[in-house]
Amino acid sequence: MNINLKENQKIFFASDFHLGSPDHKTSRKREDKIIKWLKSIENEAAAIFLVGDLFDFWFEFDTVIPKGFIRFMGKIAQLRDRGIPIFFFTGNHDLWMKDYFTKELNIPVYHNPINLEINHKKFLIGHGDGLGPGDKKYKILKKFFTSKVCQFIFKWLHPDIGLAIAHKWSSQSRSSNMAKNEDKFLGNGEWLWEYCKNVEDKMHFDYYIFGHRHLPLELPVGKNSKYINLGEWLSQNTFAEFNGKELKLKKFEK
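Above: the chain's sequence. Below: its structure in token form.
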């Protein structure tokens, strides 16, 4: 995929909205803030990449989607109607996203990292869960959750039962991650940073963009590359902006 920016156009990246968490009232306030951010960038956005965990849980039954988030979905529908490309990535909390957004809004959904070129700069973009060394327990769980057998069994649960179980699991998963110093920089223990270094040894990218870590980071990868972690919108409201020449990590303050 190649994107060439026109004058005054920019590419925007954000992740980890976790809409639905931890309760309806808090999530609605966050949803309003995300919509304000989308409004603030729409006139200069050449494309928007939403890089996983947009929802705290998401599952598409054959004819049912989770209740809520209607304002967010309405806003991205409006952006698509304006012709602004939007790209969704699944994260560990919404990995059961299928083709609803693709069919309804022509928004592609990616389950794995992708590489692309923007103004002759090479990008590797993904959510980041399950990449790099360590985290073996989650990698095993991810294989189970992404199996067709697991999805088939869950699909046949009544949505009220299935979603209640899923939200309970999602809440416990988030609490567990926070207890494991999720918000602290781990130096050489940053496994996504190590993953980027390993990739760079084999293939060059100018920018590595990931979410999942809930920690805004901008770190060197070799001599000519950067690893950017997008942070989250539970408290930080951070995003990345590429103007065709350089990429900056920013915070939405409005």
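The chain is about 35% helix and 20% strand.
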